[in-house]
Amino acid sequence: LAATSRGAMILGGTTPSAGNDGDTGTGTYWYVIGAQTEELFYVGRVVLPRVELIGRIDLRLWAGDARSYYNYKVVVSRDGTDATTWVDRTGFGVDYQGLQTLPGPETPVRYIDVYLSGNTVNVGAHVTEIDVFAATTASTCLVEVDPVITPGASYYGPLSADADLGGGPTD
After folding, report:
1. pLDDT tens, the chain, 171 aa long
2. Residue 39 gets which letter from DSSP?
3. Verdict on whether the full-model pTM lies above 0.70
4. Which long-range contacts does 23-27 make (Cβ < 8 Å, 24+ apart)?
């Protein structure tokens, strides 16, 4: 869902278009200059073309050598304001390399903010690709609608079997 071919875009950082161009190699990447510390830096924002019910985010950290990144955090929002933390991988003692597969609860999302620390080799915070996947079930409805009931019509399904909702006298 985050691919440029699907109408998504990335704002912020350096070479943001490299973060969703489909290339998972190490030749191009989306990045910011940070520090070689645990401190998080704002890499930028993925903007989906519309609100989507998502279930997983894959964050590919640059992995062209043995470097590790100290911390990262991904925050999601439906409206660009009210944000929820999708994943928070901050804290001392654990470092991260390569593909980070981040399943989460089915959530309606349009905006995805990425925060990343520097790494064990330099001050760069590099993302080679970010992928966003739709939720795998259709059990959650994004929009509630009121049913339209036509007088005199027969209805089948969740209302009741062959219910006459016409409002007139019943047989």
Report:
1. 887 778 899 999 999 999 999 998 889 999 999 999 999 999 999 999 999 999 999 999 999 999 999 999 999 999 999 999 999 999 877 899 999 999 999 999 999 999 999 999 999 999 999 999 999 864 443 333 344 444 554 434 343 334 444 454 544
2. -
3. yes
4. 23/128, 23/129, 24/60, 24/128, 24/129, 25/128, 26/62, 26/63, 26/64, 26/128
From the list 102, 110, 114, the residue with the least C-alpha distance to 142 is 110
Burial class for 39, CB neighbours closer than 10 Å (0-12, 13-18, 19+) = middle
The amino acid at residue 118 is: G
Q: Are the C-beta atoms of 37 and 70 separated by less than 8 Å?
A: yes
- Closest to 126 in 3D by CA, of 37, 38, 21, 18: 18
Q: Which two tokens stand for residue 144?
A: 């509630």
CA-CA distances (angstroms) from residue 158 to 54, 142, 154, 161? 26, 19, 12, 8
* 3 state SS of 85: strand
- For residue 46, the SS3 value is strand
